[in-house]
Specification:
The chain is mainly beta. The protein has one helix and three strands, in the order βββα.
Length: 66
């Protein structure tokens, strides 16, 4: 999850190396590479969802009706 509440899934972690790049900003439905990692944008958490459900251990998961 990024600082603006976008959630990404890591598809390839660059052979286990630590990521030290910028936060992803893409909201494309296609996987993309950033800093040697392959990521896929999943969804964004709204500010109201974050206020109600976000904790240091858990993030809300949104249903995608499509």
């Amino acid at each position: 999850m990024t600082s603006d509440y976008r959630v990404y899934k890591v598809l390839d972690n660059n052979a286990g190396t630590a990521y030290s790049g910028a936060e992803p900003t893409s909201t494309s439905s296609s996987p993309f590479e950033l800093g040697g990692y392959v990521l896929k944008y999943m969804y964004a958490i709204t500010t109201s969802e974050a206020a109600k459900y976000l904790t240091s251990d858990f993030i809300p998961v949104s249903n995608d009706s499509t």
